[in-house]
Structures
1.
Amino acid sequence: MSFNDKVIVITGASSGIGKALAIGFLATGARVALCARNLDKLQEAFVAFDNNKLLLMTADVSKEADCKNFVNTVLAKWGNIDAVVNNAGMSMRALFEEVDLEVIRNLMDINFWGTVYMCKYALPAILKSKGIIVGVSSIAGYRGLPARTGYSASKFAMQGFLESLRTELLHTGAHVMWVSPGFTASNIRNTALSATGTAQQETPLAEDKLMSAEECAERIIKAMRLRKRTVVMTVQGKLAVWLNKLIPLFVDNQVYNLFLKEPNSPLRKYEK
Ligand SMILES: NC(=O)c1ccc[n+]([C@@H]2O[C@H](COP(=O)([O-])OP(=O)(O)OC[C@H]3O[C@@H](n4cnc5c(N)ncnc54)[C@H](OP(=O)(O)O)[C@@H]3O)[C@@H](O)[C@H]2O)c1
């Protein structure tokens, strides 16, 4: 499938994977409609690109009215939508024992409900174009991660929703898929919410050793071109998903130990 002149809607495109996806799609000749909460940052990221192929909007995907307005604005400008990439997302890093429940609600609102709202309002256009709905999920959507209860729950919910929707739409010509990147260099660990809902403002990982957002985006675009069902991107991710089905207790221990090794791991509380 060629993306030339197709209309691709991407949420959360001012940074990381969303920004790299938008740049990748612009290189294919697609028209891209992008949103984020911070419009200045979004505009700054795309200042060098052809305005005729771009639509930049403020939208907070956790707000239904913003999603409706975003979709309607794209349709008013270009008349159709060929793909919606539900990429906007946030993470967390805190023990469930200590986390303010508002943090979990917030992550569900962005990562899960944001996807539901976008799909609801874009679906008539996607059915018409026989287009693609994509969820940018995570390995955390297959395997619960410690100190990420709200994040994992939101990605499991996203995948369950998309799998149901895919099955509903099986004979319509529209396609539903999700992709699960492994650790990818981006801003997500800096903005991850603490127990009280503030940004962590630091990453526990060596970001320069992770998959680049550009490589991740390239793989997503290829998967969309091939209309794949799901993509689990890294060897570590594939192993986690596969072994978790076969020997889940072993994976509990492996995952615990991996996250215990992080600098300032919240899990240290339970090691005393
Ligand atoms: N990086 C990884 O290691 C990794 C691994 C697996 C999956 N993922 C998934 O990949 C997706 C993209 O994350 P990233 O790593 O590229 O993170 P990122 O660099 O932090 O980018 C997140 C983007 O989403 C936007 N955003 C956040 N909340 C939003 C909201 N409520 N409404 C609209 N836009 C919002 C941000 O802009 P504003 O703050 O201006 O809104 C930003 O443009 C997420 O769904 C994440 O779960 C990432």
2.
Amino acid sequence: MQQENPFNAPGGWYKGCLHVHSTLSDGLLSSDEVLDWYRSHGYHFVALTDHHVPSQAEILAEDWITLAGVEVGGLDPVAGLYHLVGLGVELPGPGLSAVTSLQDAVDRLRAAGALVCLAHPYWSGQRSAQLMDVQGCFALEVYNGGCEVDDAKGFSHVHWDDLLAAGRRLWGLAVDDAHWRTGDRDAGLGWVWVKAPALTQQAILEALDRGCFYASSGPLIHDVELDAGRGEIRVRCSPVVSIDFVGSGPLSRRVLAPTGQTLTEASHRLQDVQGYVRVACQDADGRWAWSNPLFLGRNGEDTTTWPM
Ligand SMILES: [Zn+2]
Ligand SMILES: [Zn+2]
């Protein structure tokens, strides 16, 4: 997996919803109503991901597209209940409803041309150790807004860090997973900002695959810069109350704003045994932004393809 720094990459920023339901499965709004909601709330793309009902990619306007998407689920003998989101899945999708094992479902989605994401592992009740041997997922949902507002199980950052610390390379998505059961209270909670050369399904999927995006439930990240020479990582963002530099085990640090104030930048000296570092910012309303992890060699040596 090649990584690209979204903050240096050419192209434009596009805001997208990568997990949402409609009346085509168990959501309460029609697919047209769902698309209208996101269009009117400033999004550039949406993947409708109804359960076992693949949607289609369409260009609806110059600044408004849909990605093909689907959510599949089953019971794995090791991991138990699982849900996966497939993005860019080609219709009709081979045998997606007859799947039992998690790895089999990942493999079938990939065979159908999809990028595959582990959906809401905390909500599903999965433990990190049960996910270590799963191959072929490009990301997991670090935040699922619907699981948080409905069931208080939206944050899967511990699963993410456990997998990253074990050397798994997964990006982090924030999503809504809205079902519209309580009006739109489960919508507009989690999204991605993708840096891509064009607003097409192919360009967005390729950027997602390269990690050329960040996830948010509120704050903006303006820049994440790795200075390998100084062994330092620097971040600029919209006003927040804390900026976290999260790495393996205890090699993490939180930079707090003084009481009643906010921060818009912070830096962190990397540790020489640190395998990865990722940034998470929290604003005064408790909303977050999450950068993707940077993978590091010993002595802060950059093992990604990020330009300095
Ligand atoms: Zn699900
Ligand atoms: Zn869902």
